[in-house]
Amino acid sequence: MGSAADGVGRGLRGLCAVALAITASTVGATAAQADSPTEGKKVVVLGDSYTANGWDPLTLGDVCVRGATAWPAQLGRLIGPHGSDEVADPSCSGATIDSGPGYTLAMQVLQADHDGAFGPATELVTIQLGLDDHWGETDQTLWYALQQCVFDLIRGCDLDAVEQGRIPDIRGVTGVVYAERIRAAVTYIRYYAPAARVVIVGYPEILPAGQSTACVGILGVAPFIQPRGRAIVEYFDRMDLAQREGAQLLGLDFFDARALTAGHGLCSAEPWINGVFDPHTDVVGLPLHPSSRGDAVVATALYDRYLR
């Protein structure tokens, strides 16, 4: 049962999302009166834990922690000596497009705008969200699925887990739905950062596409293998396709991080995704998230494509 603070938080998030949608839908009518008061940052980064890639168990998830080796931080260093000042990063672990309970895309956009991040000098705005959202007919999340599906050796994590409610409803993960869920934010960004390239950043390879098993390294001793892992693999596959198609529908760029990191997922010969306290990657890195090496590859590719 949620606390009063939870209820207030949900209400605030709803109000922020509504405010963003209203503002985005009426920018055409107010264009003559709305002038950006700042030049803006060169780069604005919006995303979840695959962007922020930092964690602190002592915060209990109530503070946004952004890692020093996360790809936005590494991208800032590539830009130059003062590059970190050119990157606005309101990304947050647990963030969603619009599902909550953490920071939503609307909240991140409004925070960036409040901080003067959008303006005529903004060159790149990235969006990396979706894995933590609710999809289709269920309200389950990826992290619930890891507990109730991937690590369940009795029932497994086959496609029947969707019907059992142990994993997000992968049937609802489509490009059309993805595009509609981010459309208001994209309209808002395009208005206040008219020269920026808006890019949907895909997720790195966590598990190879199309396979039926799921694997994660634990303590560097022996991997945990789920032989019936088709549903979680399908979830990652469908998210990749939805982001790609959503970008096309909205006229955005799609940055294919999965192709860029192919062959370096969990339990690969050279993994760029952290296991659980696995010395093959970053021992204390956020599990199932990119290692510093994986984030370096993404940062360098983004820099080369959009900022060099």
Descriptive report:
This protein has 11 helices and 7 strands. It is of the alpha/beta class. Helix 8 (175-192) crosses helix 9 (230-250).
Strand residue percentage: 5-15%
Helix content: 25-40%
Distance between the termini: 50 Å
The oligomerization state is: single chain
How many helix segments? 11
The structural class is alpha/beta
Low-confidence stretches: 1-17, 22-36
Number of strands: 7
Give me the strand/helix succession: HHEHHEHEHHHEEEHEHH
| Strand order in the largest sheet | 2-1-3-4-7
Provide a short characterization of the protein structure:
The chain has helices at 4-25, 27-30, 49-52, 71-79, 105-114, 142-150, 160-163, 175-192, 230-250, 257-260, 292-306; strands at 43-47, 87-88, 124-128, 197-201, 214-218, 222-226, 253-255.
Topology:
Elements: H1 4-25, H2 27-30, E1 43-47, H3 49-52, H4 71-79, E2 87-88, H5 105-114, E3 124-128, H6 142-150, H7 160-163, H8 175-192, E4 197-201, E5 214-218, E6 222-226, H9 230-250, E7 253-255, H10 257-260, H11 292-306
Parallel strand pairs: 1-2, 1-3, 3-4, 4-7
Antiparallel strand pairs: 5-6
Helix pairs in contact: 1-5, 1-8, 4-11, 5-8, 8-9
